[in-house]
Amino acid sequence: MGFSTLGRIPNFVRWLGVDFFNTLYGTSLIDGPKTAWTVLHDHGIYIDIEKIWRPYRALEIEDFLGHIDTNERYARWLAALGLFSNTDPARNRKLVLALRAAEKRDLTDGYGVLMGAVEFLEWAKSRGIALILVSNVTEVGREVQQESGLMGFFKTFATSRDLGAVKGPEGAEANLFEAFSAEFDLDPTLGLIVDDEERWLKVAHEAGFCTALLKQAWTASRDLQPPFMPRIIEVDFPALQRKLEALM
To answer: pLDDT category, 181, cuts 50, 70, 90?
Structure first.
């Protein structure tokens, strides 16, 4: 496995900005709109999956930014699709809660805290490296983070809901990494952004940060469809730790 970088690794690392989902904590949430579409289907609501994607993603960003919570996101999504009833609030609530539960199940029905994550965080903290959570997160995602047992490792939080900015898309006028830099006034030459997705690290690199892409081991091909969902079983923290130790 190992890891790769965009730009150099600093000679002396004082802080690490670490992603959460599928970096520290494994999930099976591969396709949120498809999960939501399945919930509708299970409730006898049949709609073209192509119609749900755009409003789903737009409202997900609002949840990432902290403008709405997850229940309101799904209520607005149902309304955008013409599926929110003006005469049956009990039905609306049932659908919203089912959609929320399905999202949380996808976030927690993976391997949870990934192999080596705790040991890496403990090592970094023992070396005086400040750990900062840098993550896109919805309201229900934050709930999962708080239940993970990992939040005590972090000195502070720079999530999308904390800073009102998201990681991407690439080339966005404002993004989470720029907001992170402005909020904490950190020297980018003394830290490293750690993530599992190269697209977000490219955005971080453009914002002036050094980055490390952690390699993952999966149970099976990422192209498999349910019920054979692939899951991350390991992230190569030891390789990153060895590199950082060599610089100290």
So the answer is: confident
Residues 85-142: pLDDT tens digits? 999 999 999 999 999 999 999 888 766 898 889 999 999 999 999 999 999 999 999 9
Nearby residues of 36 by Cβ (< 8 Å), 6 or more positions away: 52, 56, 74, 77, 99, 102, 103
Handedness of CA 62, 28, 40, 33 (dihedral sign): positive
Best CA proximity match to 192, nearest among 134, 114, 115, 123: 134
C-alpha of 166 from chain center: 10
Of all helices (H) and strands (E), which one includes residue 232? strand 232-235
What distance in Å separates the CA atoms of residue 45 and residue 57, rounded to the nearest whole number? 20
Dihedral sign, Cα of residue 132, residue 136, residue 142, residue 148: negative
SS3 16: strand
- DSSP-derived letter for residue 164 is T
